[in-house]
Specification:
alpha/beta; Rossmann fold; 5 helices; 6 strands; globular; binds guanosine-5'-diphosphate; binds magnesium ion
Amino acid sequence: KSGFVSIIGRPNVGKSTLMNKLIGEKIAIMSDKPQTTRNRIQSIYTSEDCQIIFIDTPGMHKPKHKLGEYMINTAKETLREVDVVLFVVDESKDIGPGDQFIMEQLREIKTPIILVMNKIDLMNPEQFKNLYEQFKDQNIFADIIGISALENANLNALVEKIKDFL
Ligand code: GDP
Ligand code: MG
């Protein structure tokens, strides 16, 4: 199996950490520098039976940029062209305005979106369940998974979920 995946989410939710854990720091070719080229390959995950090509999505990270609207539209085009979108969020009591903004954009996209609830190591089960239900009620996610990128928790399960859509 092989396919294209984009990881999006607010700053500091753990996108880079997740990518590095999945790819292994050695062969990661990603960078956090601003990019203007569309559909730039960020890094490639390979295992015996699967290859996942991560595509950078500049623009979704900085919705308040001066070129905001143009960037967001470009980002949306990228999200339409990949096979799976990973929308990464982190711990909080309720869904915040940053995540609300991104979800508004995601509603217009038919690509399957996996909600990745990162930093479960910082959440108690009740907090996780409460946040999980709030995101589930949005009705935009093909799947939802809790992980800890930092502690390597549930990352294999995430890869399996990605494969389901390739
Ligand atoms: P990005 O801006 O989305 O790329 O976020 P980073 O990957 O740079 O992570 C931002 C911060 O969150 C860093 O200090 C990470 O160490 C931390 N972080 C990432 N994943 C986890 C996690 O699963 N648990 C905890 N506790 N911290 C995390
Ligand atoms: Mg980053």
